[in-house]
Structure formats: C-alpha cells, structure tokens
C-alpha cells in the first residue's frame, strides 16, 4: 500500500478536505482545550499547602516503596508518576487497581506507602484496594478531584486535583483532570529531588543508556 507521500496529489487533497465551519470549530476547541488545561495546572500552585507538605514528609520518610495505583486514564497517569519518581531517587512502583484485587496487593508491605489516583474518588477498584490497605494499616495518599469522595475518606492524606471542567467539548473525556494529576505528581517528584539532595550524578547512575545517559556521563552524543 503506498504511503501518504506516494498517493496522487488529487487523492491527498480529497483526504484532507473538511467543511470549513468544522475546521474553524475544531481549531477553537483545540485552543479552548489548551487554555482549560493551562488554567487547571495553574490553579494547583495554590494547593501546595500543609497537606502537601505532610505528604512530602511521609514519602521522604517511607522505608519501603511508594506504590502508585489507579485504573483507566488515571492508571496511565499513575504509571508515569511512578516512573518519574523512581528515576529521581524515590523508590516507586505501579500496581493496577484491578490486578491488586486479584492478588497483586500482596506486593505491598507494611513499610510501603500508597498513592491512589481517581478523579472522581469513586472508582470501585481503587476504593476497594484502599479499604484493603486500611485493614492492613498501610497509609494511603488519595489524589482526587473530590475531597468528599469515598477514596478521600478512606485515605490518610488527600491531594486535591479538582478541575472546574474537562477540556473536551463534551466535558466528559479525562483531559484536564488527568493533566492536573500528572502535574501534581511532577510537583511531588520535583520537591523530593530537593529534599533528597538528588544530584546530576545520581540521575546519571539511573540513566546509563540513551542520549541523556551518555550526556550526563560525559560521553559524546
């Protein structure tokens, strides 16, 4: 099958033609999405309060791993948060909330701390996992957009990632809410880099391969 560049010009033109009004509306929706998500991220700065400091202290003092959990889009964001933390000096791993209910919860020990993501705070599997952890007296940090949610009530700490609306035109797809959660995770990681006095040398030891690793180790890229 010919690739796009090999298709006749007339065929390529036909593929990209769209009604002008839809193109205009689409571009407007794209701009609105960016503005909505930017506003959601900006609002997080005012939420770096005493609870955020308590969470930082708890993570820094954790003798085991920070176990991140979530489901769906929140789970995908949770994987990235765990990866960022692990690469910047905080031992972290991800457990899918659904898998946790089918045996993987056994990987969590009494030395660990759990960060649970759910925009609504009502995700059944995440809440069930949090209940299991509570029964074992393992602290849970909720990252949710609803401080009155079931997950928040089950948690030891709650990080507020509420957004006024999602960024998509239907106000349905996880967009602004997942971006807010991702940025709050990055905020935790960046603060912990400072608290742990994590250095360029430490970062290089965790990244020996690839262009970044070679650059940090002083090799020619």
From TrEMBL:
InterPro entries: GutQ/KpsF_isomerases (IPR050986), SIS_dom (IPR001347), SIS_dom_sf (IPR046348), SIS_Kpsf (IPR035474). SUPFAM superfamilies: SIS domain. Keywords: CBS domain, Isomerase, Repeat. Residues 55-198 form the SIS domain. GO terms for molecular function: arabinose-5-phosphate isomerase activity; carbohydrate derivative binding. The keyword Repeat applies. PROSITE patterns: SIS. Transmembrane segments: none annotated. GO terms for biological process: carbohydrate derivative metabolic process. It comes from the Bacteria. The keyword Isomerase applies. Pfam families: SIS. Belongs to the SIS family. GutQ/KpsF subfamily. This is Arabinose-5-phosphate isomerase. It comes from Kribbella amoyensis.
């Amino acid at each position: 099958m010919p690739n796009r560049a090999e298709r006749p010009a007339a065929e390529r033109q036909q593929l990209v033609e769209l009604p002008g009004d839809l193109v205009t509306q689409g571009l407007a929706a794209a701009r609105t999405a960016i503005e909505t998500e930017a506003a959601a991220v900006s609002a997080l700065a005012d939420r770096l309060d005493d609870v955020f400091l308590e969470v930082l202290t708890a993570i820094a003092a954790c003798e085991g791993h920070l176990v991140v959990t979530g489901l769906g889009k929140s789970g995908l964001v949770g994987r990235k948060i765990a990866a960022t933390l692990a690469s910047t000096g905080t031992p972290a791993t991800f457990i899918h909330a659904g898998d946790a209910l089918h045996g993987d919860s056994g990987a969590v020990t009494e030395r660990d701390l759990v960060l649970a993501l759910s925009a609504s705070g009502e995700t059944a599997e995440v809440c069930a996992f949090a209940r299991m952890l509570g029964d074992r007296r393992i602290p849970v940090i909720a990252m949710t957009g609803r401080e009155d949610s079931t997950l928040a009530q089950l948690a030891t700490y709650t990080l507020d990632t509420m957004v006024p609306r999602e960024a998509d035109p239907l106000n349905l797809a996880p967009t602004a809410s997942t971006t807010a959660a991702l940025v709050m995770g990055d905020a935790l990681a960046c603060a912990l880099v400072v608290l742990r006095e994590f250095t360029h040398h430490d970062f290089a030891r965790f990244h020996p391969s690839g262009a970044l690793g070679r650059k940090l180790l002083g090799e020619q890229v």
